[in-house]
Write a structure and sequence with these properties.
This protein starts with 6 loop residues before the first helix and ends in a 28-residue tail after the last strand. Helix content is 21%, strand content 18%. The protein contains one helix and three strands. It is elongated and about 80 Å long. The chain has 89 residues and is of the alpha+beta class. The longest helix is centred in the N-terminal third of the chain and has 19 residues. It has a three-stranded antiparallel β-sheet with strand order 1-2-3, with no helix packed on it. It has a domain of 61 residues.
Length: 89
């Protein structure tokens, strides 16, 4: 049994494959300066984020129910690579 491939179908298939390859290659590129830029450290009651490019540190102290103290940095959960306000709204 011999089958012939229709030229029009092969051309459409080639365009579909090329389109898929182009779309998967068009992802956002992150510059290498951002790799490893942020360091995160935690323990049972504190969390720290260090921006190694600027030296800025954000900290969060989780409330201790026995002592009743806790601290909150308003920018701890804010995006770190975009400009943001350092004051509470």
């Amino acid at each position: 049994m011999v089958r012939s491939i229709d030229f029009k179908s092969a051309l459409i298939g080639g365009f579909v494959v090329a389109t898929i390859l182009l779309l998967t290659g068009a992802v956002l590129f992150t510059p290498t300066e951002y790799y490893g830029r942020f360091q995160i450290d935690t323990n049972h009651s504190h969390a720290f984020i260090l921006d190694s490019a600027t030296g800025q540190v954000w900290s969060e102290m989780f409330p201790d129910p026995q002592v009743g103290i806790g601290g909150h940095d308003p920018n701890f959960f804010a995006p770190k690579t975009y400009p943001h306000s350092t004051t509470d709204p």
